[in-house]
């Protein structure tokens, strides 16, 4: 009865190479680069810049991200191009004189922006792993911005619902995203051209990171900051450095799981969850059965409590990654689970607040090239359209990533996540993230590339994609499309997508003490699975405009 979710339209299968991203134009450009002899890293650079044009809600040059790779020869790397707090940032910068969090200050407008990392990150990737010339990889995005492209229905809706924000946080400079006062709303098929963004991308094409962090683009950013009382300076821009980190490894039912270390909380949390669930026979319990949901939820509750307490930027304090991933520790955490009864989050660890959710706009792309190199990259402005601030003259949106810091211990951010000292604001520090790019291997062979946007839900969505394939034998597309559940310790509730649970399962979970909250669809998982015969099978999330292409 609980054996499987509704059937999904089959994914795409290709024999050699594949790009899955949140926009058909970005996937097309990535595949074009691969066909021209580029490798997966070249394609990643081209896709990243293409998304900055085609997907303004989340694609970016004004944000940051995490890129994980596993090369065909077994080499691996984790590139952290997360934003940093500007030098003038202070721990209490979002608090009023009474010590209360000032509404919207960390989410909207100039003060919400961290120092962007994307352009420096892409250059670092290209220098280390790229094959084709840098200009060849940036040019398709220049062309896209100059010629413009048609809005999808979802993009038209997203831009339309953000018109007030664009008006409020921007000056009188022309703004490609804005409809003139009194005009009809954006509609599917409307073509937007981005001349300022095209010129910024040209500078990046010609000068690499200097085309963004110095010269006219830096001038535009600092002028924009001064107009809106933001604090990012030329020194902040020049000082920004991406970092190469060591990927985390874990095991799950014979798979080696490669994922991202702190300042992502996602990698640690994903591996903790898999360790906690490995002793449980989820397959026998059945997909989304009361027993399986009970176990998965109790694991999630414990892991998100740990996240809030222990995780932050490892360059600013000790993050006890090894301890959190110690098998004895995760076993002991699960030992407090009661059969047939929910644990109350308030009895497990400190923390208050029952927030609402806001947007969860980040984006992910998965790439495998013909040589077998794999890239899993999640990149973000944080909220949809970030801070809503478009840098005048430069034509790109700035992130609102400062909200991923803990503005005040115990007070939830826009994802309802609480944090403490480990994730307090400090100059130059990276804010904690949930982004969870992951790559699965079996006997040293590539098996899956996966990741998603979704703020705090990223970790549980990636977990479910893996469980769906490994425990429930779903094809990749079905694993991605299947309705999802989410629990994050606080608020103490299971978020439930439409059709995720049978009515009798809902009754059974309520009897166990769970609070269930129906919630509209979240996440956009983009994944690639390597089939036993070596072909690639896509999972492009039907919740968005996501697209798998390849050859
Ligand atoms: N801004 C979402 C995240 O990094 O988790």
TrEMBL record:
The keyword Nucleotidyltransferase does not apply. Pathway: Sulfur metabolism; glutathione metabolism. Cleaved by autocatalysis into a large and a small subunit. Residues 333-352 are annotated as: Disordered. Its EC number is 2.3.2.2, 3.4.19.13. It comes from the Bacteria. The keyword NADP does not apply. It catalyses: glutathione + H2O = L-cysteinylglycine + L-glutamate; an S-substituted glutathione + H2O = an S-substituted L-cysteinylglycine + L-glutamate; an N-terminal (5-L-glutamyl)-[peptide] + an alpha-amino acid = 5-L-glutamyl amino acid + an N-terminal L-alpha-aminoacyl-[peptide]. Belongs to the gamma-glutamyltransferase family. This enzyme consists of two polypeptide chains, which are synthesized in precursor form from a single polypeptide. This is Glutathione hydrolase proenzyme. The gene is ggt.
